[in-house]
């Protein structure tokens, strides 16, 4: 009986196999790096959520007070804003006849205030 030897691969087939194998490993390595970055991001986000939740649950009154202190315009600053009475005939800018917050048109005789740096005109409720 004659022994049959397996066919020897050509050099071209060997290069193709090496190239494809190298590509597969690079895809696997990229997937591992992406999974690691996602895990680190998720870990950071969950730590933040747990810290905030613990702060709210252990000291709710202190948390609410600190949120109020760090938001909005202070009363002293609000009172210090210059106020005026709106009049359509004395308005310098005819295009600026709306409240910057609620977008309602001003009527003659309404109290308004202008934030000078940004030139917003707002209703003043007293």
TrEMBL record:
| Localization per record | Membrane
Q: How does the record classify its membrane topology?
A: Single-pass membrane protein
Q: This protein's superkingdom?
A: Eukaryota
Task: Give EC number(s), comma-separated.
Answer: 2.3.2.27
Alphabetically sorted, this entry's keywords are: Membrane, Metal-binding, Transferase, Transmembrane, Transmembrane helix, Ubl conjugation pathway, Zinc
- The record lists the membrane-crossing segments as 25-46
- Give yes or no: UniProt keyword Phosphoprotein: no
Enzyme kind, highest EC tier: transferase
Reactions performed catalytically: S-ubiquitinyl-[E2 ubiquitin-conjugating enzyme]-L-cysteine + [acceptor protein]-L-lysine = [E2 ubiquitin-conjugating enzyme]-L-cysteine + N(6)-ubiquitinyl-[acceptor protein]-L-lysine
This chain belongs to which protein, by name? RING-type E3 ubiquitin transferase
